[in-house]
């Protein structure tokens, strides 16, 4: 599989939540080409029915598959819940499909209390309850719907991001020791979230999934991490609801977006400076 002339990995999501996952893989294997398949015509997926989500993510993956990727990463929790089985039925075993799961298992090792921030649809889902039962049944666990946070991140709206973080923080138990980011968008402002906790006088460990998903992707395609590999000269290929497109320059306000846009610099790892 990995002896194709161009080793591309495709990421599919409704929006820019895939940036953190693509950047994590790029850091571990800079020689891999990336395909970023966003679906701005139909996002967000959260309010949609499971059948709608399944149909939309299949369409995005089919468009990305035309570019001959060696793997497809579903960088969206909602799409992973509702579409992963359908995607694997279509594309595997020829093309591995890797899903995204909130990092509840490693968070539970802290002993808790653990709080999971996610979209409203995920926070009330049987899927999330099943993960808690499987990996954190003996840990004090809370679920918080971070209403509007994913949408604010998508819009790079600093005021809306801070308001949504503040609202979610107000619902979060004050003794929380571990915070699980249960939406792929949230990792783009993880530093901002940590800073909000510190402002309340609390220190939490934030758990997210991009590095774990990147490592799983490499395992599935038979590669080891190699951060010193010669970077591919090919910029990411971007699909917008199946159409060729480009990442908007405003995404450079996020460190992960800056890396993928080729604007990496000495401050890229710092908390993003967002326009108000």
UniProtKB/TrEMBL annotation:
A Pfam family hit: Asp_Glu_race
InterPro entries: Asp/Glu/hydantoin_racemase (IPR015942), Asp/Glu_race (IPR001920), Asp/Glu_racemase_AS_1 (IPR018187), Asp/Glu_racemase_AS_2 (IPR033134)
Domain of life: Bacteria
UniProt keyword annotation of Isomerase present: yes
Alphabetical UniProt keywords: Isomerase
Region (Disordered), start-end ranges: 222-242
Keyword Isomerase: yes
The protein's name: Aspartate/glutamate racemase family protein
Naturally occurring in which organism (per UniProt): Intrasporangium calvum
């Amino acid at each position: 599989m990995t002896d194709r002339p161009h080793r591309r990995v495709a990421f599919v999501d409704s929006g820019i939540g895939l940036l953190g996952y693509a950047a994590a893989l790029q850091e571990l294997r800079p020689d891999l080409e990336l395909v970023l398949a966003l679906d701005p015509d139909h996002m967000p997926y959260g309010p949609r029915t499971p059948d709608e989500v399944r149909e939309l993510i299949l369409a995005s993956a089919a468009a990305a598959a035309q570019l001959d990727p060696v793997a497809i990463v579903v960088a969206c929790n909602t799409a992973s819940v509702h579409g992963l089985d359908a995607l694997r039925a279509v594309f595997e075993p020829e093309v591995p499909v890797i899903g995204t799961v909130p990092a509840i298992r490693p968070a539970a090792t802290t002993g808790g209390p653990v709080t999971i921030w996610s979209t409203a649809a995920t926070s009330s889902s049987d899927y999330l309850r099943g993960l808690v039962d499987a990996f954190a049944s003996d840990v004090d666990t809370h679920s918080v719907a971070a209403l509007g946070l994913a949408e604010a991140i998508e819009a790079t709206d600093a005021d809306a991001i801070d308001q949504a973080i503040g609202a979610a923080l107000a619902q979060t138990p004050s003794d929380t020791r571990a915070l699980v980011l249960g939406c792929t968008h949230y990792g783009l402002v993880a530093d901002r979230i940590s800073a909000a906790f510190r402002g309340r006088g609390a220190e939490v460990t934030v758990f997210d999934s991009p590095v774990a998903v990147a490592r799983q992707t490499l395992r599935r395609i038979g590669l080891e991490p190699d951060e010193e590999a010669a970077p591919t000269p090919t910029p990411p290929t971007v699909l917008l609801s199946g159409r060729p497109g480009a990442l908007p320059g405003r995404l450079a306000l996020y460190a992960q977006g800056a890396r993928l846009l080729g604007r990496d610099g000495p401050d890229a790892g710092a908390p993003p400076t967002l326009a108000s």
